[in-house]
Amino acid sequence: MYISYNWLKDFVKLPVKIKPEEIAAGLTKHTVEVEETVKQADRFDRIVVGKVLEVTKHPNADRLRLTVVDIKKEKLNIVCGAPNVEPGQLVPVALVGATLPSGLEIKESEIRGEKSQGMICAEDELGLGKNHEGILVLGDQAKIGEPFAKYLALDDTILEVDNKSLSNRPDLWSHYGLARELSAIFDLNLKSFDKFLGEFIFLDDKENKLDIKVEDKILCPRYSVVKLDNIEVKESPIWLKNRLMAVGQRPINNIVDLTNYVILEVGQPLHAFDASKVKKLLVRRAAKNEAIETLDEKERVLTEDDLLITDGKNPLAIAGIMGGKNSEINPQSTSLVLEAANFKATAIRKTSQRLGLRSESSMRFEKSLDPKLTIVGLTRFLTLLKESCPNFRISSSLIDINSLEQKTLEIPLDLNWLTDKIGQEIAPAQVINYLLKLGFGVENKKEPILKVLVPSWRATKDVSAREDLVEEILRLYGYNNIISKLPVQTLSLPEINQERVLERKTKNLLAWKYTLTESYNYSFVSDEQLKKLNLDFFKYLKLANPLSDNQARLRQSLIPGLISNIKNNQQRPEELGLFEIGNVFWPAPGNLKKEGINGGVLPHQEKHLGLVVAGAGNLFNKLKGIITSLLGNLINYEITPVFSALETVPGWADKKIAAKITILDKEIGFVANLNREVMENMNLKKAVTVAEINFDVLASVVLRSPSSCFQEGLKYPTLVRDLAFVVDQKIMYNDFVTELLKFNPLIKSVELFDVYSGDKLERNQKSLAFHLVYQSEHKTLTASEVDTIQTELIKHVAKKFEAQIRNF
């Protein structure tokens, strides 16, 4: 936002000793960041007034002319294409080395064989308007050779304020708001804005009452309107144009320029409708897909969340953002309807963002303006209109639809609390002075607890609690004046997050010990991806605003992402091994809606560990071994996981090679091969085995299990016997081993060393060969004692599993 130094001086008397640079530094230190200060005359550096002496036709171009221009110090030869250039004219001349406001740098050049030593400028090339039909011809008061900035009486300095630092300060989006800040920062007297408002008589009869209706008083809490006649639409006075141009606004006509002037001066947007085209005003929400052509000649399609100003039927303006083409003021307009409104900030912001349309009005409305400004803005417009339209007439009553209860916000401020909060004492009189300078009211001035009355321009969004008052006092006192001292605080070590420690340990083991590569995937999957994995995507939560169609649903497993990783890296000749730890998402109970949408309730999240290996060989056994070793490292090597039949097999898994993982009677996950159909769907060239473990469940098991500890070895020797059993193919390894281990306490361990199923056995049989280790804690076992146990063991498994000793 651009702020005029001269404009500020209308409201606060700035001493000569306070330079614009000091103003900028004070605002940056205490209020908002001023990015730079620019002298207005610098925009027209090396642009001077010249007089056209001669005009002749260009010998090599029909539309170009050769001119001789006197700039007092010398006479320049300039090639000009303007049709209106004539001898005797006083014109703005950009000299070689000048840079126009548009960014064009002027250089000495040769145009169609003729030398050109500068440029005679048009209005738009100087940033003074839109006209490009010819060069700008100056008045007789111009002096040959004088700087063009001096001719325009440009003696202003412009402060560029960073808009981001104004986000929570709607009162600062105006010159008067910033003047109020300067009066507080530099302890200067601020002129009351009432002095800038004239007195007007509004009609008060039903015949002259405008037909105004506000349907949605939540989105439009205040709407003030008046009708004016005897209006003459014409060029604005020079002072008005200069003020607007100084802050980057393009003058248009006196009516539009005055609405722009008021918004820049007091912060209240105004809108003028051509009264001949507007017989009624209705403020309502737009219908779905209702369209309006705005002043920029673009058609805007609206939604039911957008607010419109209409004539009762057809839209006239998008409320708070931009007017419509069909009701704009034009040179033939003789009467107008002037609107000053207050709109709900969030509604204006959402409409502006969705349409990609920002204006000076929308930027202010979306910050939550003071509702009291509507009447101030209207009155200021009427006051200024007297100069360009001295015969204008108020032809209606003042319609002011106000649905707000404007109660003054009161905040108690305990001065003792303030001292504790700041860390040092600021004199009560100084505190009260700061608050009064900023426009706050203060009662109970002699009490330790002040009653602070928040002014309307600060109560809309900015100041609502005593902590906000601390900020106001401190920024004027100066943060640099606060004495820096270290707080007295006893430090203690933070509580250790055991689950995070476990996660880090797991990652280190998988990466360094088992040489797997960690993968990070998005938490989203696509319908197509789930289809290829034979999964029902309707059960997955669908995003309301997905980044793309390929990321439309929240994942319920890490497997799809890891399989995609394998596919993208399968050209590598060696075996691949990946892992990922991340969250998966499930519908909250009772909230799975049609198409998987979660009805606005946050989904249930779980942390999972995913593992995948790809390549050749027995990948299933390899991944089982990694999982067994990992769990041994995390829990206890004496506690081994159990791999058993998986009752419900995912659509992507091979039903014959899939197992659930159980440890300490807790099911924590599964391991399985990919089936042939899914491998073809995913175009996988390598065999793939995957596993997924519920890391939350695993963490609870690890954290409640006893730690591993060393035990004294048994003093007595072991006896090892080998036994090979022939059993039915349906007998599960885990079930058989469990039965062997629990048969007798002297059997300390059982190790499988061979599995055979060949032509020496029947088709539905297999042979399992084990090393059985026997050991006693109290004596050395004899061979006959072990033989007796083995005989009973063979009978036991024969009865339970119909197992027979292999005889070959």
Top keywords for this entry?
Phenylalanyl-tRNA Synthetase, Chain B, domain 3; 7-stranded mixed sheet; 5-stranded antiparallel sheet; 808 residues; Phenylalanyl-tRNA Synthetase, Chain B, domain 1; OB fold (Dihydrolipoamide Acetyltransferase, E2P); alpha+beta
Radius of gyration: 42 Å
Shape: elongated
Q: In percent, how helical is the residue content?
A: 25-40%
Q: How confident is the prediction overall: mean pLDDT?
A: 90
Task: Assign the structural class, choosing from mainly alpha, mainly beta, alpha/beta, alpha+beta, or little secondary structure.
Answer: alpha+beta
Total beta strands: 38
Query: Tell me about the biggest sheet?
Result: 7 strands, mixed
Provide the CATH superfamily of the largest domain: Bira Bifunctional Protein, Domain 2
The CATH architecture classification of the largest domain is 2-Layer Sandwich
State the helix count: 21
CATH topology of the largest domain: BirA Bifunctional Protein, domain 2
Strand content: 25-35%
Terminal Cα separation, in Å?
Answer: 95 Å
Question: Could you give the order of strands across the largest sheet?
Answer: 26-29-30-34-33-32-31
Count the domains.
Answer: 6
CATH top level label of the largest domain: Alpha Beta
